[in-house]
Model the fold of this input.
Amino acid sequence: MPRVSVIIPHLNTPDALRTCLYSVTGQNLASGQAEIIVVDNGSTLALDGIAAEFPAVTWLSEPVPGPGPARNHGVAAARASVLAFIDADCRAAPGWLETATAAVEQIPGQAIVGGDIRIDFANPQSLTGIEAYEAVFGFRQQLYITRKQFSVTANLAMAAPVHARVGPFAGIDRAEDLDWGQRAHAAGFTTRYLPNMRVYHPARPDFAALARKWQRHIRHDWKAHVDAGRSGWQWRLRAAALLLSIPFESVKLLTSDRLSGFDNRIRGIATLAKIRAFRAAEMRRLMSAPHDSGEIFWNRQA
Done:
């Protein structure tokens, strides 16, 4: 039996998936101690060539749209007592799987751990504005874990019995990582942050892709806001606060140790201002928009 099952949801990013699989199969535990499960979520691009490159990988298909259902399908097929999750567009750093597995095995049947997520820069000396922005604001894992009790599912590991007790990841109309992490916390489990359990995620290629990401998040937030019975003026106040926060959040870009170079920091600030203005406008627009399924955002790719 393997010690750890690595579960990777995938949709229409075969080149990124290939890079991900090379990074995972190159881990110290990958030979004989880890099983790797890829769950395709309705890709229109063929995966036959990649499957031939990685014959030891288990290839599954989940027709229900959304990374949550895809992960649940992988969990159902997993044989190990440790479950590790990484996204198809991520690259695992050396030691990622060994660190995650050892940490979960230290507290059998109870552990949840989340690791650091860094942006995979194309050229570290000259960043795009989006790379600089996401390096600071894209994946604030330590803050998510310590203050909001959840880990992004792009870098998450747990004991299999924990998933069985907490239940499946939510569908596409919820932020499945936040939802699952907070349900786990309510059930008495504590997620630990491991800075050495690191993966790299590419920055969004352009502003349209970054905007699509925030459209999904804003939809999830709006649904939670409505479900909680909160008022429209509270939502409008949150939108206004986004615009007022730009000067204060710019300080983080100027001082973060995840960036170097003044030009990189200024490009990041410009992207920060643009995306916060977009988010505020999208929040206001969504209040009068008809409800539609989050599937349209998932299938447009992220």
